[in-house]
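Q: My labmate handed me this sequence with no annotations at all. I'd like to see what the chain might look like in three dimensions before we decide whether it's worth expressing. Could you predict it?
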Amino acid sequence: MPVLEDADHRDYAIAGRFGKSVTVTDGEWILHQSPVEGNEPLYWYGHHDAKFIPYDLGPYGGGRREVDCESWATPTWLSDKRDDPNELVNLADERPDKLREMQVALRETLVDLDAPDEQLDRLGIRNA
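A: Here is what I predict for the chain of 128 residues:
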């Protein structure tokens, strides 16, 4: 335990699927932030092909490639993992305060990770 008590930790963890929703959690609340409508184009940063994801990539130029990817139809989803561990109830409309708090956490985490600025626009959280 002493090793774990002295270890650095993060307040939030993020995950996602390229071009789809991005998830942030503090271990109690979880937000699946979906891209906003009209979020195209999507860019792949790097000259290598997408080896493990089935997207068609355009030509490389300006440090990126445009991606042909259908939009994510699932709405933004907020769940309280303590009461709803299977994430069956979307609390995004019921808890706008917590939704905003988690969106701010997601924006700050993406900025800290040097995510491309356009990702904030795709997710509609630039001004969160």
